[in-house]
Amino acid sequence: MKKFLLSLVSLFMLTLFAVAGEPTKALTFPAEGGAGISGYLSEWTATVGEDAWTIYGFNTNKNGWDYVKCGRKGVAHTGTITSPAVSAAITDVVITVDKTSNVEKATLTVLNGETTVKDIDVTEKFVAGNVDITVEGAAGYSYKLTIESDGSATANGPTQISKVALYEAGKYAEEELAEVANIAAFKALESGTEAKLTLKDAQVNYVSGDNVYIQDATGGLIVYKTGIEFTAGTSVNGTIIGKIGAYRGAPQLTSSANTTNSEVTATALETLAAETGVVAGLATAENLLKLYEYKEATIQEDGGKYYVVDGEEKIQIYDQFKVVTAWPEKANFTAVLGIYNTTYELFPIADLEEVKVADPNDYT
Question: Which tens digit of pLDDT belongs to each residue from 171-180?
Answer without folding.
Answer: 887 656 889 9
